[in-house]
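Write out the 3D structure for:
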Amino acid sequence: MDRSFFNNVRQQTVRLSEREVQLPILYYDVSAFASSFTVPTRLIKGILPSKHMRPAEILPGRSVVTIAAFEYRDTSVGPYNEVGITIPVLLDPIINLPVLPLLLEKRYKKLGFYVHHLPVTTKVAHDAGREVWGYPKFIGEIAFEDKDSVLTMSLAEKGELILRVRLDRSAFGGRRPSPYFWDFRTYTIKDGKILKTVVATRSLYLRTMKRGASTLELGSHRISGELASWDVAKDSIDTRWMPDFQSILPEAESRYDQ
């Protein structure tokens, strides 16, 4: 995609503990996918760091964990890979209806992704994420393989497998990706505050609710054990693939008491 998406963006220099970065961070050339797997709501309520966050349910008593994988080939902080282990939540909802916020995401302004783990592959991405937004980042190994219509992402730390997600592109039934614009929200905790960050995105996009379009394999790492304790389903209930993706990551828009 061309870079017209970034035409009106003005960056400013922010000093971190060991370096300077330009904010917002600009992501020019990216491939990504996101796979959602069901979990019992009762098992993840206690994971959320604030009483203001409520899991967005896909069915009564069933919420989701969304694993998002990004291959950042060209960004304003250099190339790197990233995996988000997130829980879709609503912030102080008046009413928490199942299904609708997850299906009609653009209409629900309180819907966002609580970021539980966010491994990356470079130190600059690690440092900026932790110091500016409080993203729970660590340095990991993230590999992508594209073979026979199956896209595989493997996440490990120091050689120990955390998880592997396989996306079968045949589940999209031969449809072509279409343009999609979405400003999604992330929720993190920093200095005792909930930070809401609004990330603008433009992509070529496909989505399917076909069960098992993505599959999850867990390793032996401590995070693997954590996910297993949540009784995460191994077959996806919602899969999105963005073969071309661009985004703008600004500083947090709002801060709330935790």
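The two ends are 39 Å apart (CA to CA).
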